[in-house]
Each structure stands twice: as C-alpha cells, then as structure tokens.
From TrEMBL:
It comes from the Eukaryota. Residues 236-288 form a coiled coil. A zinc finger (TRAF-type) spans 103-144, 155-201. InterPro entries: MATH/TRAF_dom, TRAF-like, Znf_RING, Znf_RING/FYVE/PHD, Znf_TRAF. The keyword Metal-binding applies. Residues 26-62 form the RING-type domain. This is RING-type E3 ubiquitin transferase. GO terms for molecular function: zinc ion binding. Residues 357-482 form the MATH domain. GO terms for cellular component: cytoplasm. GO terms for biological process: regulation of canonical NF-kappaB signal transduction. Residues 103-144, 155-201 form the TRAF-type domain. It comes from Amphimedon queenslandica (Sponge).
Amino acid sequence: MATKLDDNLDDPLYIYPVPKGLVTNCPVCFVSLYQNPFVNGECGHHLCGSCSKRLKFCPECRVSLKTHPDKSLQRVLKSLSVYCNKKNEGCEWEGELGDLQHHQENCVRAVIRCATCDLEGPRDFISIHQSEECIFRIVSCKYCHHHYSWSDLNSHYDLCSEYVIQCSECYASITRGYEKTHKNEVCPLAYVKCVASQYGCQWEGYRRAMDDHVKNNLAVHFHLCLQQGSKNEEALASCKDVIKQLESEVKKKNQEITSLHQKLESEVKKRNQEITLLRQKVSTLEQNNQCLLKTQIPSMENEMRRKMAIWQDAAENDLRKELTEYIDECLESGEETDNEDDEDDDYDSDSDIVKQKPTFFYELYHFVKSKNKDKDVLSPSFYANGYHMRLRVHPNGYGRGEGSHLSVYVCLLQGNFDRTIPWPFRGEVIIELLHNDNGRPHRRIVKYEYDTPIDFSTVENGPSKGNGFPKFIAHSSLHNYL
C-alpha cells in the first residue's frame, strides 16, 4: 500500500500547440476544463462547474450566468495529445488528455508515500522499498510461518514455540515448544527416578541407564510390588470400615433431616393458620374503625363546634359586661380621652369597645424586681377563638427597647383545637396596659397578616416565635400605669 502525492491534471504538457481560441482552463480558478466544462448560454464563455454554481455573473463580460454542461468541448479537450507530467523525470508515456489520469495512477515515476514508514519517492522505488527495505514490512516467520512486522521479528524469535534451540542436557536440536516434553520423557541425560519409585525403589540416575537398572533389579521390583499390594489391601480394608461408618452416619443424618423437615412443615402450617386468623382480625378491625369514623367523628366535630360556640358566646358576654361597666365609670367621672398616637385611632367609640373579641386580663406582680433582674415574664396561657396563646413580657425591655422600654410579645401555643381552626393564624391581638387612675389604657395592636413569617404564625413545630413590640411603652411613662 502507498499514498499518491502527485496528481496535477490542471497543467498538462501538450504535445502539439493548443488550437487558437480553444479554452482549456477556467478563467476564474484556472483548473482544467476537460473534466467538467460549463458554457454560459448568454455569452458563450466557458468556466468550470464549481465556479458556475457560486457565481451570478460571467467573469469575462459580466452578463447573467445561465450555464449548462458543454459535452462537445469536453470531447475536444480529452482528445488533445499530451505527455506524462513526469516526462522530465524519465516517463516516456504519450497519449490523450482523457487517459492521463488513468496513467498517473500507475506511472512508475509518480511520487508516492510508503503507507507504513511515510518515506516518499517514485512508485518504482517505493515498490522495491516496501518489499525489501521497509522496517515495517510484513514478513513470515520461517519457523512458525505466522506474519509479523520485520522490526518485531527478532523479539518474536525469543518467544516463538517453533524456534529451534538446543537441549541443555544432551544438546539435541529441538523446538522451544517441545523442550519440556523432551526433558520429561525423551532426553537420555535427564536425571530421573526409577519407574518403580512409587513402590519404594530409591534408585536415581540418567534416563539412558534406566533400562539396565530395571533389567538388573526385576526381583527387587517384584518384591516391592508385592509389599505395596499387601499395604494396599490393608488400606482398602481400612477404607471399607470407614465407608461403612460414613454410610451409617449419612443414614442417621438423613433421618434427622427427615424429622426436621416434618417439624418445619408442621410449624409452617401452624404459622399460616395464625397468619390467616390475624388477617381476619385485622380485616374486622378495619371494618369497625371505618364504622366508628363514619359515626363518631361527625358527632365529635359537632360537639366541639357547639362547645366552642358556647365558650365564645360566654366570653363575649363577659367582655360586653366588663366594658359596659368601664364605660359607665368613665362617663360618670366626666373624663375625656385624647388621642396619644396614630395607632389609637381605631379605639374612638363606645360601639367599637362593645364589639371586641374575648379578653384576657393579666396582672403583673413584682415588676421592679423583675426589671432589675432583667428577666422575662410569661403569662398564663389562654384561648381566644380556639387559638392557644400567652404573653411574654420583658420589664427591662428586649432588643431595640432594652433598658428603656417595656417589651411585650404574643406567642402562639399548641392547643386542643388546632385541627379544627385555620392555619397560619390571621388576625389581630389587642394589648392594653390599664391606667391606674381610670385614664385611657395604653393600647397597641399585634397584626398577623399574609406577609407574617410562618415561624410567627404557626405551631406545627412547637410554640411560635414572639410577635409584638420591643418598645411597647417607655419606662418614663410607666408611672401612670403601675
């Protein structure tokens, strides 16, 4: 195999001058037109097929291109007489241009490359090189007749099983693959044991002396064979006893296995019966549970709703009563209330007070002591519309209010009605600090809205975080409420 390097068909060597006016090359890319000539029907100019596809105008007169193959020009060009392009290198071929390509594929002076070592040269030189000189040429091993690269042949000889070597004992010529068999079975100078060594003969020597030893010691070998036969009979008798003992043990084990198999079958049967009974019980329990769910849960829900309605009505009645009494006291004293801040605008009419939800009253003792110890105080828990809550009060303040304000927070707790009320909690919790002279309470509203974080408005993972005011009221204003 070789790679062709020279294939110059675009600049042929014409034997005779080209007729005047005959176009032989494309005016754009200058390739020879004899393989694929095209003619422009608008102007008659010629160009190659490749240029006719990519151009829109004639390169010589700039008219629009409307080309088609020109077979007549192709026949004329192919009939022109030419030399081989390797004429100067010694090739004497002459012929028509149409046959030049076929000749170049076989031209002995064409430069090609060796397919195995990449050496370049004329075809006739590379042919000799590939068959006789290339170090990568394929040759046959003269011993095993397998094919290898010439450069690998010497390495192959070191491993070839048919390579001829000399026996290290008798110096006979043998193949490498036969060496082991030769030494174990044939080599006359190999050091071996007597053929009767298995019967007790201690002789050792060269294989070529084996025959003489056997002939001279027939009686000895016969006596050794008799002794070995006697030993074999004793061993055979002993083996028979062992076999009988093993057969007895096997029989015993088979009986034990049969007994265990019967016990297992009995136990499996018993367990299957128990499983069947348990499945029946489970099925019965499931049916009973479904009946209970259908009958008791609706009644429990109705009872819970009824109790919650009663608790809510009672709480609202108590609140109305207490607030009405408070309003009467305010009216009798003739005190008027002023708006202290923007957050008190919701609290400006008697009707608003009467409409409030259930109220939880909490009285804080030992305020000064707790303030000095910087401790937070937790109120007793309470329910409001089914939600379980408590207050967390920091007498000395917390966060931004530490040391200057009273801080108050609302915490949601896990309660008895969590499954029947909506979550997360959405609503308002009003916190009031009562005035010590029946004046207007200090009032703030904790709002739980849609943007309130889940940690503050649910109790799924335990009590919620506190939601409230780090600056509920300044310490300087507390003298009116203590």
